[in-house]
Amino acid sequence: MTKSLWGDFTEIEDVRTPHLLLKEQAGHLEEATGGSVTGHVTRSSDEKYQMSHMTITAHGLDDYAPVLITIRYTVKHYPCWIKDPLHDVWVESRDEEEYLSYLGRVLTSDYVKQVITGMIAEVTFQRRAAVGKSSLGDEDEVVLPEDLSEHVH
């Protein structure tokens, strides 16, 4: 039998892949919103690229799960590309530092904040409406304070 020609793989360092880093951010989202909004990261691939997709969900919004971020990378991980959700373009990151920097800009963008706060507002409205539901039917009955009810027609 011939000796192994593969070299030494015993000293492989831990690699923080773009996918793993995106999953970590999904966990931070749940913490940041007190569990109101949850991030989910899934993976797909083709012959050339692996892709990770972060969707977000909120309890009570049924099947609404917008894709916030999509990243694309090869088996080497870097460079990787982040799809800018607002401009629908791919932005290249040459290394982990660039990736985290751009990912941070996307996650703190006005667009992402609007999506998340909109989902939280919708869930909050649904919870409040559920408290005021009529026992006679399935329609939501929104109970207004007395001082506002005279202005609603």
Describe this structure in words.
The chain has 153 residues and is of the alpha+beta class. It has a domain at 18-109. Helix content is 35%, strand content 23%. It has helices spanning 18-32, 96-107, 110-131, 146-149, and strands at 37-45, 50-58, 67-73, 80-84, 89-93. A 5-stranded antiparallel sheet has the order 1-2-3-4-5. β1 (37-45) and β2 (50-58) form a beta hairpin. The protein is elongated and about 75 Å long. The termini are far apart.
* Average pLDDT over all residues: 85
Helix percent reads: 25-40%
What are the low-pLDDT stretches, counting only 5+ consecutive residues below 50? 140-153
Most strands sheet: 5 strands, antiparallel
How many strands appear in the DSSP assignment?
5
Strand content: 15-25%
User: Could you tell me how far the N terminus lies from the C terminus, measured between alpha carbons in angstroms?
Assistant: 89 Å
Q: Layout of SSEs?
A:
Elements: H1 18-32, E1 37-45, E2 50-58, E3 67-73, E4 80-84, E5 89-93, H2 96-107, H3 110-131, H4 146-149
Antiparallel strand pairs: 1-2, 2-3, 3-4, 4-5
